[in-house]
């Protein structure tokens, strides 16, 4: 699985990592039941703190996308992704992208309303 | 010796060699020193334990120096991350064998090899795993630091996957390791006075290695590609900085390829798709990889950005 982060981005790194996983799940490039890389390995390769990766995985667990099992690592929730969790993920990605471009939540809301 | 080669060698600080010598001496010497320190408490028929220790060391150092003499321009083929696991793994094991032999013979009437006593066997096996574990951890850390240093960028990309051994690997590996193991086992059993415990230990180790199988992790990042074997023996680990990658392609390979190959960069655990990376010096590195096409795609895009001089590549797998 591919992870991309930018350390100069205003978006926190754990959000960027979570966004990578979310995108992969939504796009179907990572299948339900698949195991994600151990947080230690991923942190080492991305040269970030292991707790940053664990925080990202924790966030995805709270969204219902991952299962974190002691000794077995992070596993994508088997079965179809819960619609609300999927929408939740997409919105988070949108907010992260907007923040990266300097667009406030208010401006984003107006933009969305103008598209309805 | 006024050749370009000798001038180059004089000007180059050989960190792997310095690291090897320093680590080796630091680990081996304390164990060798235990022998004269406890000489009065050891049985009179201890034999030439120092001689065995120093003799095996000379063989290993000679092997390592030969490796240096045959070094190529590929830093992955000969680098600190290669030297550290080898050095600490081997030297650490020797340390525990010598120290264990001294410990089991303290105040004993007759001399016993460390492998003849269950506690000695446990001590040595513990030492083997500890030494190789520390060596591999430090080696891996050194490898990552080197690759990261070469790719100073705010944008970081990592593609990670694991690959497990299949039946074809077990067959080849079991045979390759089984033959020398079988010879050793026969020697242990036949030679007087007979060493049944070491023979049983070897047989159990062989079976455990084959059953457990090798596992390798493949890491492709904006800094380079790294293949890390997860078993102590079996398949080599290798790494290549992105700057050293000339091309990447998906091929089909099987463990039998390893049988007669002298290429140290073959990590073939399955019969089927594999990723072949060719370095700028023409050396080939291979790793079994079911997702070889995806890996090639990522490497090609990373290389495109590298060649354009961009330090922040945007990579996708589409």
The radius of gyration of chain B is 22 Å
Biggest sheet of chain A: strands, sense, closure? Answer: 2 strands, antiparallel
Radius of gyration of chain A: 15 Å
Unreliable parts of chain A: none
Average pLDDT, all residues of chain A: 83
First CA to last CA of chain B: what distance? 55 Å
Largest sheet of chain B, in brief, is: 4 strands, antiparallel
Strand order of the largest sheet of chain A: 2-3
The percent of residues in helical segments of chain B reads 40-55%
Category by helix and strand content of chain A: mainly alpha
Q: How many beta strands in the DSSP annotation of chain B? A: 8
**Number of helical segments with 4 or more residues of chain B:** 8
Helical fraction of chain A equals 55-70%
Name the CATH superfamily classification of chain A.
Answer: Winged helix-like DNA-binding domain superfamily/Winged helix DNA-binding domain
Domain unit count of chain B: 3
The backbone outline of chain A, from C-alpha atoms, is globular
Report the strand count of chain A: 3
The total number of structural domains of chain A is 1
Please tag this protein with its features.
heterodimer, A: 116 residues, mainly alpha, Arc Repressor Mutant, subunit A, two-stranded antiparallel sheet, 56% helix, B: 318 residues, alpha+beta, PH-domain like, 3 domains, four-stranded antiparallel beta sheet, four-stranded mixed beta sheet, 8 helices, 8 strands, globular, disordered N terminus, disordered C terminus
Per-chain topology:
The complex is a heterodimer of chains A (116) and B (318).
Chain A: E1 2-6, H1 13-27, H2 39-46, H3 50-62, E2 66-69, E3 73-76, H4 83-100, H5 105-115
Antiparallel strand pairs in A: 2-3
Chain B: H1 4-11, H2 15-37, H3 49-69, H4 80-105, H5 118-150, E1 155-164, H6 167-190, H7 196-212, E2 215-221, E3 224-229, E4 238-241, E5 245-253, E6 266-267, E7 272-279, E8 284-288, H8 292-307
């Amino acid at each position: 699985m591919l992870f991309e982060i930018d350390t100069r981005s205003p978006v926190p790194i754990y959000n960027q990592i979570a966004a990578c996983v979310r995108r992969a799940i939504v796009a179907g490039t990572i299948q339900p039941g698949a195991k994600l890389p151990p947080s230690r390995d991923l942190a080492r390769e991305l040269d970030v703190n292991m707790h940053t990766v664990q925080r990202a995985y924790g966030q995805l667990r709270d969204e219902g996308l991952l299962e974190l099992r002691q000794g077995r690592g992070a596993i994508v929730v088997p079965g179809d992704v819960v619609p609300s969790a999927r929408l939740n993920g997409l919105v988070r990605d949108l907010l992260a992208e907007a923040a990266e471009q300097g667009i406030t939540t208010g401006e984003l809301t107006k933009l969305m309303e103008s598209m309805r | 010796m006024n050749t370009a080669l000798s001038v180059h060698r004089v000007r180059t600080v050989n960190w792997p060699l310095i690291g090897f010598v320093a680590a080796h001496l630091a680990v081996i010497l304390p164990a060798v020193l235990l022998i004269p320190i406890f000489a009065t408490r050891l049985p009179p028929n201890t034999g030439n334990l120092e001689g065995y220790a120093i003799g095996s060391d000379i063989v290993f150092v000679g092997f390592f120096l030969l490796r240096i003499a045959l070094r190529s321009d590929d830093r992955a083929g000969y680098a600190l991350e290669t030297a550290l696991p080898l050095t600490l793994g081997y030297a650490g094991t020797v340390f525990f064998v010598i120290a264990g032999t001294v410990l089991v013979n303290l105040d004993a009437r007759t001399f016993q090899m460390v492998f003849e006593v269950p506690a000695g066997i446990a001590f040595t096996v513990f030492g083997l795993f500890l030494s190789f574990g520390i060596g591999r951890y430090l080696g891996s850390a050194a490898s990552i630091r080197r690759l990261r240093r070469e790719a100073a960028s705010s944008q970081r990309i990592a593609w990670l996957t694991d690959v497990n051994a299949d039946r074809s690997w077990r067959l080849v590996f079991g045979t390759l390791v089984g033959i020398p193991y079988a010879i050793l086992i026969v020697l242990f059993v036949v030679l007087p006075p007979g060493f049944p415990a070491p023979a049983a230990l070897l047989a159990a180790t062989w079976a455990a290695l084959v059953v457990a199988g090798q596992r390798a992790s493949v890491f492709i990042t904006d800094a380079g590609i790294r293949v890390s074997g997860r078993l102590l023996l079996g398949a080599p680990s290798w790494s290549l900085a992105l700057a050293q990658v000339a091309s990447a392609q998906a091929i089909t390979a099987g463990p039998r390829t390893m049988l007669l190959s002298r290429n140290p960069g073959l990590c073939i655990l399955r019969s089927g798709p594999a990723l072949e990376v060719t370095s700028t010096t023409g050396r080939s590195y291979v790793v079994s990889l079911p997702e070889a096409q995806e890996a090639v795609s990522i490497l090609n895009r990373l290389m495109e950005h590298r060649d354009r001089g961009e330090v922040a590549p945007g990579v996708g797998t589409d």
